[in-house]
Request: fold
Amino acid sequence: MELFIIFISAAIVNNFVLAYFLGICPFVGVSNKLSSAISMGMATTFVMVITAIVSWLLYNLVLIPYNLAFLQIPSFILVIASLVQFVEMFIKKVSQPLYRALGIFLPLITTNCAILGLALFGSMREYSFIENVVFGLGAGAGFTLALTIMAGIREELDLADVPKPFQGAPITMIVAGILALAFMGFAGMI
Amino acid sequence: MKKQVTLQQEFIKGVWDNNPVLKQLLGLCPVLAVTVSAINGFAMGLAATFVMFMASLIISTIRKTIPPQVRIASFIVIIATFVTIVDLVMKAKFPDLSKALGPFIPLIVVNCMILGRQEAFASKNKPGRAMLDALGMGAGFTIALVILGGIREILGSREFFGLQVLPDQFEPWIIMILPAGAFLTLGLMLGVVNMYTDRKKRMEHESIVAHYKRVGREELIEELEVK
Reply:
């Protein structure tokens, strides 16, 4: 039950994109086509789960026992960067179709603040190992959800008559605002 | 021959022409997240400016010794070092502010604005220019954050920098301090900036057309339209 609440909380109530503003760059950049939004969401979820596992191990088995918690930021970012590189090489070797689906999005994920945010939140809230993995899964699901909804809306938006100065980024922001309002309806759930 | 850019322009371009937030849409995560009040926005702006300034200084100084293959990783390590300094100093000196900004101070590491400036500017220019560039970009970033934070704070809690500016009769717009308010305000701000830029461009265009008409060179106008 505890795990279920963590999952729902990360995915819907405290959605990473719409409540914490993490990962706005890909949210604005990749959300103009539904198919690429889904691929990006899946790639991010994948990296998030792996990050949740590795960052928990790093923090609780290396940084804490050796009193190095102040090195948290540089060590997390280095681990994430090399992890993404490693995952990219691994997928390329093992599954070509998966590589073609996720490939171009993987390098972008390194500088996605949602990933580092996930690692930092995990260590701040002192989750247990299983909780942290579920948290990563939930955050990834929430990211995919927000990205997919946004891409769906933007595909329709292309046909709408938007005032010229508001075309592109401004209208995307306003749509995201309305979406955030809608997600606030879940606030009372937990 | 490269076009000469004066030192002054180097600074000014970050404040308006290439404003990281309003024109380039870089580093939006902290922009939206911390601007519940003007003071938070200001603190975030200063922190990011400091990190960018120091990173630009170091990277432009050692730009010739960094091997190009590992430059991104080196930039990130240098940036992460200064972010750690800022994080620890803020925790010690301004615990309240540090709590309000939460994980967004550590998240300066992955702010694409800072990495972008190192890649696009500091790694190719002398330290003096790189420092000015970082200061200009930082100033532009801070100004955008303070404006956004100010609008949200005034409408959402009737205050500006903690001082009450609207009378008690004014019902605060709660939505402004909620996440949705950040998106809406930034969207409207971007729209207004675009509107202003478009109008300026159109006026420039019209003045050129008028000039050509005055000197009787109508064929140049057509050329301009084609462009």
